[in-house]
Design goal:
The complex is a heterodimer of chains A (360) and B (342). Chain A has 360 residues and is an alpha/beta fold. In chain A, 48% of the residues lie in helices and 9% in strands. In chain A, strands 1-2-3-7-6 form a five-stranded parallel sheet, sandwiched between helices. Chain A has a two-stranded antiparallel ribbon with strand order 4-5. The model of chain A has no long low-confidence stretch (mean pLDDT 95). Chain B contains twelve helices and 14 strands. The chains are: A alpha/beta (360), B alpha/beta (342). Chain B: One of its GO terms (molecular function) is oxidoreductase activity.
């Protein structure tokens, strides 16, 4: 089977690589991407620290995948939609959602802490691949409404084994839906390596089977991702239908803080991927162009630190959600059964509040 | 000169039509699509063919391929895509070809469709209707005759209803489409084209609310509660029992989630006896739930235990055995006898 030639515009040292298919994005776009990478990396570190401090229940880090995260948000226009997963906190934040609202899910305060319609970001999906079908539906809705809205849907390599992944690609292709699927192939589904998910020459090949372009891109190369995803979004917006993009990347951190990655991968393997850090590569390129200097870098770092400090302060306030919320949004129109159950919980809580006084 | 007198039977007013359940559903869908251009129909064979039961007959021709979509053959895909369409303001009506094929879509229904409103604190409404032809008695091969409604009634966030006559078929499908919550709409498939059930449907009438049970025959000796295809069985049983001077009250549940049991409680307080009837297996079912609630609310009114007449706790049998599986008039009357003899 024919190999797909991976799109790469920057090598591991930040040197520009010619690719006859995709032009290098303009420097100012990449400087802004670098700002986002610095911010995203800091958010990953801060959220992981907040788990250790007991402020978050869990955090699936995208450390190492920041280029995919920030580019997925950056290529979208204001009216476009993003359909993220639990590992895509950085992408959601870069789309403009307050990190405190995003982390509501992982804090255990509510299953989704932001308004999806306002931000045009679907709730983060915890099951694998279910969101891809929603993305196709939302994309087809744009067609029916006569909009040029594009939907970008994220998933990982493990999700490509799920039936919904295949149904989503097929529906998207049959409907020529304006949707871009970005598979972040980070090599592991918790502990199970890619070889146990697929023996296809690449995950991007799967697009070809469904009748859509399949593009393999270096997932740690922000320039290549910007070019590839940007082109896919433009094609979708112009009525050219869906694209499957596979980003070749790596999950540097464990699956979550509850995972012990040393049981299934070696330190050497992680170290080799750490040397392909997307920040290092883009920084070297931009410093070489003299469009990024110490002052600019200090500015980005300070902004990222300020974000982290604000997040720490916000999450220090750990008042639990109101118990009444349990019943508030089960259905758009409430039912008598739920009203009765809510009343019974209220009575139970009232009795608990009275009890200590009586004991006194 | 006096105006000629016309019999309304010869010349029905334009708003009244004599319809089967199937035709009433078809006209209900049509009315919903005319009233709101955000209403879409999607599923397998719903376009040119009009669905394997012809419930969507003519809709694609009149509303176009954009509003009546033949989808690839994948139930999770149909429902997942409908969720995405609803997120962007549409009101999709999905047809599942037979109830036995709904399960590839079960994850999208139970984990996504049912929970999106809750997860987003009401930020996203998902007014998706899933139409499900269900029930047995059509002599079909396996996976074409089941009654899985209890599985869906168990899931918080969904609403589950079932129609049993043409008037309800016409109105309930429109009300379900207008509802801002996801609705599983169970249709008694063996009665779709039943001439015996044909009834005048007044399309200008004011319909009953969607989420309300209805007493369809008044009586005083015992209460029968049923829904969907079993309502006819109970009405036939009540007619037969009347010959023996037994007065059976029949309640058509109509809504399975949320349940509307006040009419049932009121009835049981008068009759003291309740028999619940359904084709579904009995264990952990709608009929179990009714029994539990009635003993809680009507304990001192009960003259006998609540009895259940249901399918057996087996997989749906081959068609040559289904007459032994399906609750019929005799089985219902036998239960009435047991309740009276308690």
């Amino acid at each position: 089977m024919e190999e797909l030639r991976m799109v790469r515009l920057l090598d591991a040292d930040g040197g520009a690589v010619e690719d006859d298919r995709y032009p290098m994005p303009p420097p100012e776009v990449l400087v802004d991407a670098y700002r986002a990478l610095v911010r995203g990396k800091r958010l990953n570190e801060q959220a992981s620290a907040l788990v250790r401090q007991g402020r978050l229940a869990v955090y699936p880090s995208s450390r190492g995948q920041e280029a995919c995260q920030v580019t997925a948000a950056a290529v979208l226009r204001p009216g476009d939609w993003l359909f993220p997963t639990y590992r895509d906190t950085v992408a959601v934040v870069e789309r403009g959602v307050d990190p405190v609202e995003v982390l509501t899910l992982l804090r255990g305060d509510w299953h989704c802490g932001y308004d999806p319609s306002r931000h045009r970001v679907a709730p983060q999906a915890t099951p694998l691949a279910t969101q891809l079908l929603h993305a196709v539906g939302a994309a087809h809705a744009a067609t029916l409404r006569g909009e040029d809205t594009v939907v970008l849907a994220l998933c990982g390599d493990g999700a490509t084994s799920e039936g919904d992944f295949h149904e989503a690609l097929n529906f998207a292709a049959v409907f020529a839906a304006p949707v871009v699927f970005l598979v972040q192939n980070n090599k592991y589904a918790i502990s199970v390596p890619l070889a146990r998910q697929s023996v296809a020459p690449s995950l991007a090949h799967k697009g070809i089977g469904y009748g859509m372009p399949g593009v393999l891109v270096d997932g740690n190369d922000t320039a290549a991702l910007t070019a590839v995803l940007g082109e896919a979004v433009t094609r979708a917006a112009g009525g050219g239908g869906p694209t499957l993009v596979e980003a070749d990347t790596y999950r540097i951190d464990a699956h979550t803080n509850a995972d012990d990655a040393s049981r299934y991968r070696t330190d050497d393997e992680v170290a080799a991927w750490a040397r392909r850090d997307p920040l290092v590569r883009l920084r070297a390129y931009l410093r070489g162009l003299a469009v990024l200097d110490d002052e600019r870098e200090a500015e980005f770092t300070a902004a990222a630190e300020a974000d982290a400090a604000r997040l720490r302060a916000a999450l220090a306030d750990d008042r639990p959600p109101e118990p009444a919320e349990l019943f508030a949004h089960v259905r758009a129109t409430p039912t008598p059964q739920l009203a009765a159950q809510a009343a019974s919980l209220r009575a139970e809580l009232a009795a608990e509040r009275r009890q200590p006084e009586e004991e006194r | 000169m006096a105006a000629p007198v016309r019999s309304t039977a010869d010349q029905p007013t334009s708003s009244v039509q004599n319809l089967t359940i199937g035709k009433a559903l078809n006209l209900g869908l049509r009315a919903a699509m005319e009233a709101d251009d955000k209403v879409l129909v999607l599923g397998e064979d719903v376009g040119k063919l009009g669905g394997v039961f012809r419930i969507t007959d003519g809709l694609q021709k009149d509303f176009g391929e954009q509003r009546v979509l033949d989808t690839p053959l994948a139930e999770s895909g149909i429902i997942g895509t409908a969720v995405g369409l609803a997120v962007r303001g549409f009101r999709p009506v999905c047809e599942i070809q037979f109830e036995g094929f709904i399960f590839p879509g079960f994850d999208q229904i139970s984990s996504q469709l049912a929970k999106l409103h809750y997860r987003t604190q009401g930020g996203i409404k998902v007014p998706v209707v899933i139409r499900v032809p269900y029930g047995g008695g059509i002599g079909a091969v396996e996976h074409h005759s089941e009654s899985p409604e209890s599985l869906f009634a168990h899931i918080a966030g969904l609403k589950v209803v079932s129609c049993a006559n043409p008037v309800d078929a016409y109105w309930m499908i429109q009300q379900a489409i207008r509802c801002d919550d996801p609705v599983l709409f169970f249709e008694p498939k063996r009665l779709y084209h039943s001439g015996a059930l044909k009834a005048p449907v007044d399309t200008a009438a004011e319909p009953d609310p969607l989420f309300a049970s209805r007493t369809v025959r008044q009586g005083s000796t015992a209460t029968l509660v049923a829904y969907g295809p079993s309502v006819k069985v109970c009405l036939d049983a009540a007619t037969a029992a009347a010959e023996d001077d037994l007065s059976l009250e029949v309640i058509d549940l109509r809504t399975l989630s949320p349940l509307d049991l006040e009419p049932v409680f009121e009835s049981v307080r008068r009759t003291g006896r309740l028999i619940t009837v359904s084709e579904a297996p009995s264990e952990s079912s709608i009929t179990s739930e009714i029994a539990a609630r009635v003993q809680q609310e009507c304990f001192y009114s009960l003259e006998s235990p609540v009895l259940r007449v249901t399918g057996f706790d087996t997989p749906y049998p081959p068609s040559k055995l289904e007459e032994h599986y399906l609750p019929d008039l005799d089985r219902v009357l036998h239960a009435v006898d047991r309740a009276l003899a308690w």
